[in-house]
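Components:
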Amino acid sequence: MESIEHQVTLKSEVVHKATLAKLAAPSLSLLSTEQKNTALLLMADALVAETSSILIANAEDLGRGRANGINSSLLDRLALNEQRIIDMAEGLRQVVELQDPIGDVLETIDRPNGLHIVKQRVPIGVIGIIYEARPNVTVDAAGLCLKSGNAVVLRGGSSALYSNRRIVEVLHEALSRSDVAADAIQLIEDPDRSSVDQMLKLNGLLDVLIPRGGHSLIQNVVKNASVPVIETGAGICHTYVDESADFKMALQIAINAKVQRPSVCNSMETLLMHEKFAALHLAAIAEQFIANNVELRGNEKARALVRSINEASAEDWDTEYNDYILNIRIVSSLDEALQHIQQHSTKHSDCIVTENAEHAVRFLNEVDAAAVYHNASTRFTDGFEFGFGAEIGISTQKLHARGPMGLPALTSTKYRVSGNGQIRG
Amino acid sequence: MESIEHQVTLKSEVVHKATLAKLAAPSLSLLSTEQKNTALLLMADALVAETSSILIANAEDLGRGRANGINSSLLDRLALNEQRIIDMAEGLRQVVELQDPIGDVLETIDRPNGLHIVKQRVPIGVIGIIYEARPNVTVDAAGLCLKSGNAVVLRGGSSALYSNRRIVEVLHEALSRSDVAADAIQLIEDPDRSSVDQMLKLNGLLDVLIPRGGHSLIQNVVKNASVPVIETGAGICHTYVDESADFKMALQIAINAKVQRPSVCNSMETLLMHEKFAALHLAAIAEQFIANNVELRGNEKARALVRSINEASAEDWDTEYNDYILNIRIVSSLDEALQHIQQHSTKHSDCIVTENAEHAVRFLNEVDAAAVYHNASTRFTDGFEFGFGAEIGISTQKLHARGPMGLPALTSTKYRVSGNGQIRG
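Structure:
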């Protein structure tokens, strides 16, 4: 009996708050850009003004985290300080500068019967965000959802609960001084995993779920949600160095793609190299990777050229290391490289380095990925680097949005049809 | 043990055919418009040339259906004849005329660092279609997927198995004389429902599922699929007749929205009417509905005006009748109408009939639906009526596509990034 009561209580919070968000959504869709921007600036100011209370709440999370023995990298992501709060506020001010996508006319159609049809951007409605320890995601997601006219139901990691709760209190207080309904931002406080499970099935209250975090979090959402999901994350990215590649360019791009920030999804996991280029340059390139503390794993052809390359296992080609480890496969043709990518790519970002224009075009045409590169590092797959001014995530699915997502990815459309009495014959 | 073997056998067909489709997909994405059109015309000719063998297969389905006692409307949807086969072929020829969306450039971005970014339409990949008895959907879906460069895995109703099998054999034979891989079109023949269940979980092989059919088929897919879904179908559509509406226009639009084809999703289920308009005109309008064999159910205010209106139950306002039944609610204001729609609309198509421009704008802004109408019948929500020249379905979700879906709804995008050695700092 106890467990049933427990379930009912849990259900109440998620359903209750999602319902509040849904009830707030219609009013959000009607806000002017100015009303939304005013609210965002109030939110930014409030965060800075409330720095000390937020840091106190964060200290509670950190203390609890240390007591529970969570690891140092998680503690680092969880930890706030004055500068990080200033950065969160600055992020909201940047969202103010973004163009408001709501109301944009995407298409107008005039039909022979006189119907005038306008396809216009509208908010999606209620967006569920499921994420992990970083409290800055709370602010970031709330800001982007608000600017795009959406209500948001946030479910952050339980380790950041006190921080998130205080942050959302501060945001609510700011909204109460604006034209925006405070119910637009909801935080699920229930730390039990079942609150996530409930969100996954909340069709009718949530319009979309965006998971942000590690592989297992995202896969849990993708596999179990009946609410539509925008999948983000996995990136096994390839760089193929063609026979005709410029040595210096190839070296710089490969090193940048691997070591500039190995932990992120757009970093390279596998370097493919034409055998003729490899015969001349693999040794020098391998040396640079090793100097950057990268462990190299390769196929037979690679190991025959450079002895310090370890043997790659079958699974290695399908592993997203997010670490200082790199697979190297020497291939005998562009076709072999394309085939490898087709088999092993997660369709995130793949690159060819070549001076051969025909090969470049073939690669850009034939590789099926959110972003395909010629002579540039895969690390550029990013909303800011693409000039969107924001990034909700990088979609690795093919529906709705693919690749870096700016504000338009948080919108839907509506057809407005005007007539003068038309009926269908 | 037997059941496990059974499962393995079942799994084999779905996984095997989806794998074949996935392997065919890359080559499809590279076909020219001409190559695709040539294949479509060969398919159209082959269907007509093979009319008799298709009708024989169809006769087997009909015989089996009659033996199993399936109802006459299902038999009608299942039945083919010479004209229906000509119509299917004609449908393919119309797809030839459609503009090919693949390769369309949606956006170009030039970054300060010299990166040149082009956002281009590409096929989605492999599309799964789950549908019911109509064999024409087999041809229709195969044609639209092919034109948009996608492979398709078809799972039609088991009652149409022989018809679908013969049709797909004919299409395969036509493709074998074209540049298009015959594996682009796959038919799941296993009549067991578990083959549908398997498709729902085929992440990595299927990129999207589009269910086409009745409520329970669609809800099964929406609730249980881990593959992304485009939800189609449900339509509880409203027409609100405002105080200032023109009587004749309101009558024509309301009658058209209900009785021109009651069985479809864009027909009206609920008529909302301002009390001042109703006092003058409800009697005449009700009379017309009754003359068209429509059963009327209403709220107290409606029944006080017209005695032949039955009492509407609470559930009636949330029921998609798809039949000659209409709910009528008399309201005292536009706000009451908007509130009713917000509570009961399935966000498909809703209409206001008014001569008040301000009310029209409020309605078009505030009603959250795929299509919102001013002074025109909701029956126009249709890919052909919108001028798309095709319709894969009418999306009732907010992600990816909303409202009538033409060929672009079967596409994704890819960012092509060209550089000259850019690395990220």
